[in-house]
Amino acid sequence: MNILLIVSGGIAAFKALELVRLLRKAGHGVTGVLTAGGAHFVTPLSLQALTETRVYSDLFSLTDESEMGHIQLSRAADLVVVAPASADILSSMATGRAHDLATTLLLATDKPVLAAPAMNVRMWLHPATVANVATLRSRGVSLVGPDEGVMACHEFGPGRLAEPPAIFAAIEAFFAPGRMAGKHVLVTSGPTHEPIDPVRYIANRSSGRQGTAIAAALLRLGARVTLVSGPTSQELPAGASIRRVETAAEMLAACQAALPADAAVFAAAVADWHVDAAAQKLKKQPGAAPPSLVLHQNPDILATISEPGPRRPRLVVGFAAETENVAANASAKRLRKGCDWIVANDVSPATGIMAGEANQVHLVTAEGEEDWPMLPKTEVAARLAARIAEALA
Ligand code: CTP
User: Fold this and answer.
1) Has 153 been annotated as catalytic?
2) For residue range 358-386, what is the model confidence (pLDDT) as tens digits?
3) ∠ CA 158-115-123 to the nearest 5 degrees?
4) How far, CA to CA in Å, does 4 sit from each of 35, 309, 323?
5) Residue 278 within a domain
6) Ligand 1: which residues within 6 Å by Cβ?
7) Exactly one of 49, 68, 153, 335 is catalytic; which is it?
8) What is the pTM of this model?
9) I need a labelling partner for 172 at 20 to 30 A (CA). Which of 23, 113, 195, 245 fits?
10) How far is the CA of 88 from the centre of ligand 1 (A)?
């Protein structure tokens, strides 16, 4: 396949070279376009060496016009990829500006566009960028990332360019669309941590293994996946848009921000309560009674997202971690929370399910209950993803 790769400005632009390497290795043709900003971080020569074809930039745009017109260049590709996509280029794309070679190509193209944003966290969270991204998504532009982490400017949050393997996986998904192509699924996974003071927190034994496996299985079917994950040591699947959160309140906010979605799977083991957290580390007081923790109920994310309304995903799947009366409790939970399906499992310590590799689940739907055999969590994930694909077809 032929990919037109637009490299715009930003400290992450050098990662575009690694992306080109992955694409070339997989046999794709890549034509590079450098914006003036991009050319500050990547030289035309390095991009040319890796793409093994000439690189287009504004400097040469007049001569390019005689060789290959803008329109032709934007249409010769099967997919246009913008990586990194700066706040500025996203703004130009959203408003239809054509002020340089890259933005002209983006306005003239009739091919799908995939953008991998990268910018400072404040810029990413600014209402202007949020609105531009919403506009682009509504016009069918696909996004991969941004990831969360420490940025070159030492701030922390979403804004880092997705890693090249994740961008590569998103590109591959365009060319081998599975049965869930075009569908967006939100998945929550892992535990939440509720702080008691700056150094202590309440947590639970969830490993995040089952939720991560579900996200990976949905990706394999070609879905676009947003994975909202609590703290976990699991390697999160490349290709998913990953939102790392700590508390239940953060998880709810990240889920709401990820909507709209065609389906949502709530595999996270969300803490039911949070604590009135102390601003300073709690100290032992000689002779005094231990401090008491004041608990408040957390929002129920599954129940909130299941509420009827235009933003409710078509299919909402909850989990039920039970230690007794599994099927009866799960059926009651399905009705109480307003979701469509419940995947119920027995998490009594004797089952070893909670932090283990295998899971035995019961799928509770409006039609009744199915008992699945004990299976590796990856296999439970594959079966569930296939059922979701069927339901959304
Ligand atoms: N869940 C949620 N938000 C919460 C609590 C739970 O989204 N604050 C979701 C979980 O991700 C799971 C489902 O609700 O999909 C059921 O979780 P579970 O812990 O089994 O149920 P609880 O709501 O805690 O109910 P109970 O304590 O009565 O068993």
Assistant:
1) yes
2) 888 999 999 999 988 888 888 899 999 99
3) 35
4) 13, 39, 54
5) no
6) 188, 248, 266, 268, 270, 272, 298, 300-302, 318-321
7) 153
8) 0.66
9) 245
10) 41
